[in-house]
Write a structure and sequence with these properties.
Chains A, B: This is Diphosphomevalonate decarboxylase. Chains A, B: Pathway: Isoprenoid biosynthesis; isopentenyl diphosphate biosynthesis via mevalonate pathway; isopentenyl diphosphate from (R)-mevalonate: step 3/3. Chains A, B: Belongs to the diphosphomevalonate decarboxylase family. The structure is a homodimer. In chain A, 36% of the residues lie in helices and 21% in strands. Chain A is an alpha+beta fold. Chain A has two domains: 181 residues, Ribosomal Protein S5, domain 2; 184 residues, GHMP kinase, C-terminal domain (Alpha-Beta Plaits, 2-Layer Sandwich). The first copy, chain A, has a six-stranded mixed β-sheet with strand order 8-7-9-6-1-16. In chain A, strands 2-5-10-11 form a four-stranded antiparallel β-sheet. Chain A has a four-stranded antiparallel β-sheet with strand order 13-14-12-15. The longest helix of chain A has 21 residues. The radius of gyration of chain A is 22 Å and the shape is globular. Chains A and B meet through helix 5, helix 6 and helix 7 of A and helix 5, helix 6 and helix 7 of B.
């Protein structure tokens, strides 16, 4: 069997200026521009292998070893767009194999539990688009490919870049100007780290797609957010990233998370993603910043109760004096720190604890199932790993 | 000792269109008009006796039997205004005793635990103003007196009226047009009932005065609320009350509660009053309305986690089939219903339970400490009860 194959990894990104609301549901065009930080693929990534062969009978997809449907309208849009770009190449150069007419076998795996509610769809669609683009040897730029990823899952467009990424909402009806661009590379501001507190959810939250639609339709405050609040904040946040101004970046990030969740609460019926644990983490972050009289940490929450805490490497000791004290019983620390390093966080806490006047809830860790320690990272990466057996065209395992 | 005495009771009111934000902190002038329902004094009321005598050495206040300071700026404003009005009477009629120059002894008692977090300051200031006005035989209308009550506690102005009350924000800098007016009397729409679920609070919430100031100062969405959302909703809600249109009244009430809490969440640092129990009650109300395909109940939350549920008398069976099922272990039912009546709520639930497809959290009652069953009620009432001994000028007990 003659099988062509390409593999890539793609990162998760966590928005600091939130995407919430579509102006076009089919094309995934947003009601506002957004900004995110791309996270390191050492900790959170999707690995995808795309293969094609004249012998494949149908398009097939395996996610984490299990066959899944490719039938969703969104996935089909992505595949159509990629095949169209390949067709254009083939029309210009008849010596190319006619991949655009062959079926695809795709396998994809996350290195983190999907159950954690860490919006894996962004990494998933970014890896899918990137792996096929690599297989097809498409010459399009990352921004061009981001428009295809966007059709799969809005926020996926931002996972085509590393570092600090903007998704410019665009104005055109066909979405051709709604794309991701780099604000600053990983190397521009490499000190940004993230601690993710995976918070136990009571039950399934409102899915983000239907949640957004409800907010757009029913929230009286939403128009103010998209027309006035976000456009101003977008420029301010871009500037804070370019100037590596963490206090401003942090404040805008926290405010935007709150603003997004406020419009959810203002929806009818209201949507709640933050639970009591989330709120305690928010209060903790403000208390820590106040304690040090310095902006050490910023929180942000997506459409779920998980807290993503951004901080700079140089503030890690200050932050972890509190975080490790409160969450040391939760797994996730050992993979990043030696026992000695961890004991230093405890020592740091012991040094300051007499000056701590705010309430430290010793039960707080009970609402958190896992800590993921990571940092800003690069965009999709080529890899020699392959999830599909080149002899059979089926998943390797 | 020659002692003059007057006593009154005053009600609690629970806003359905929320007051949140001051444009003048000293005069308690609000950033938006608000609407409330006055609750029955059988269940929630303050009783206040005001006495005066040329022999009293100083102004004194006893709250629930304990001496409290009258020194707060707000209380002083109220006393000054009332004495000024009395002085005007005395100047016109020299036969009147010169109460305006004498000291006051005031005693006040609530028939409900202040710990329940049921904003007792509204009833308290309304009763204070009304008792002194009665003692002074002031000819001013309730609306005129409401301006004085407003200076004590903003929402107190609405407790000068029974039934359905608007607090018109006014435009003048001196606050002389910021007053309460009746939208509809108790008899206009007497079927309105309220079930208050007293929710256990984790710890002290942000006090409403400082909370408001923070929202006005920091929330980006707040201006939209006060400039556009509330003015429109105010007219719609007034109309729904005049037309006794419960579905519209209920929807506006729920939306306004959510909008107010959304601006709290949009404050920086964010303010949270709703806890996980509050949110579950919100979801329950929406589920009940959906179940009956009819608007049976409306929720509203003030600056705390307590839920106030408004409903019409004719829907009580429908609502209590669920509420009694979920909260029968919580005290508050026995004082209003016989055992047989309560068993009928259970029977009603048994009838419908097979059709209930939404989740009924059997632990939900654990977050609720007490149920208060009440209804729309009249404004302040004269009473022959007195809390002050006419011989000593001191509290009776």
């Amino acid at each position: 069997m003659s099988i062509y194959s390409a593999s890539t990894t793609a990162p998760v990104n966590i928005a600091t200026l939130k995407y919430w609301g579509k102006r076009d549901k089919v094309l995934n065009l947003p009601t506002n521009s957004s900004i995110s930080v791309t996270l390191s693929q050492e900790d959170l990534r999707t690995l995808t292998t795309a293969t094609t062969s004249p012998d494949f009978a149908k398009d097939q997809l395996w996610l984490n070893g299990k066959e899944e449907s490719l039938a969703s309208e969104r996935t089909q849009h992505c595949l159509q767009d990629l095949r169209q770009l390949r067709r254009e190449l083939e029309e210009k150069d008849s010596s190319l194999p006619t991949f655009s007419q062959w079926k695809l076998h795709i396998a994809s795996e996350n290195n983190f539990p999907t159950a954690a509610g860490l919006a894996s769809s962004a990494a998933g669609f970014a890896a899918l688009i990137k792996a096929i683009a690599k297989l097809y040897e498409l010459p399009q730029s990352e921004s061009e490919l981001s428009k295809i990823a966007r059709k799969g899952s809005g926020s996926a467009c931002r996972s085509l870049f590393g570092g600090y990424v903007a998704w410019e909402m665009g104005k055109l009806e066909d979405g051709s100007d709604s794309k991701a661009v780099e604000i600053g590379s990983l190397n521009h501001w490499p000190e940004m780290k993230a601690a993710i507190l995976v918070v136990s959810a009571d039950k399934k939250d409102t899915p983000s797609t239907s949640g957004m639609q409800l907010t757009v339709k029913t929230s009286d405050l939403f128009q103010e957010r998209i027309n006035n609040v976000v456009p101003k904040r977008f420029e301010q946040m871009k500037k804070s990233i370019l100037e590596k101004d963490f206090p401003t970046f942090a404040e805008l990030t926290m405010k935007d998370s709150n603003s997004f969740h406020a419009t959810c609460l203002d929806s009818y019926p209201p949507i709640f993603y933050l639970n009591d644990t989330s709120k305690k983490v928010i209060k903790l972050c403000h208390a820590i910043n106040e304690f040090y009289n310095e902006t050490v940490v910023a929180y942000t929450f997506d459409a779920g109760p998980n807290a993503v805490l951004y901080y700079l490497e140089q503030s890690e000791d200050k932050l972890f004096a509190f975080l490790y004290h409160l969450f040391q019983n939760v797994s996730g620390w050992e993979s990043k720190f030696t026992k000695e390093q961890l004991s230093q966080f405890n020592a740091k806490f012991d040094e300051i604890k007499d000056d701590v006047s705010f309430y430290l809830d010793s039960e707080l860790h009970q609402g958190v199932t896992r800590v993921i320690l990571t940092r800003v990272g690069p965009g999709p990466q080529d890899t020699d790993l392959s999830l599909i057996d080149s002899a059979t065209g089926l998943p390797s395992n």
